[in-house]
Amino acid sequence: MEEFFTWIGQTLGQVIRFVVDLLTGFFANIGSAARGFLDGLSGALGISPSLISLVVLVIGLWLLWKGFRALMRRAILATLIWLLLGFVVLSWLIY
């Protein structure tokens, strides 16, 4: 009877170890994949891969999105303002 519970304990321990190793490998690869994506994105755009540059990029894209939405509402003046702001912010990054 003692050998049975030893076998169950070992099997459960191996399953837990497998799950932990699997999750560790998954999250390690997610980090390197995200780093590679951001390096590729910043390299293609010609910007530095710093956090500030990426935040400014997101803000610039958000301003362009606001301009597009204003265009869909046929607000021409708002469209021009949002697009101009978006292009100015993105021109700080991309040279």
Automatic annotation (TrEMBL):
Keywords: Membrane, Transmembrane, Transmembrane helix. The chain crosses the membrane at residues 18-38, 44-64, 76-94. It comes from the Bacteria. This is MFS transporter. It comes from Halomonas mongoliensis. The lineage of its organism: Bacteria, Pseudomonadati, Pseudomonadota, Gammaproteobacteria, Oceanospirillales.
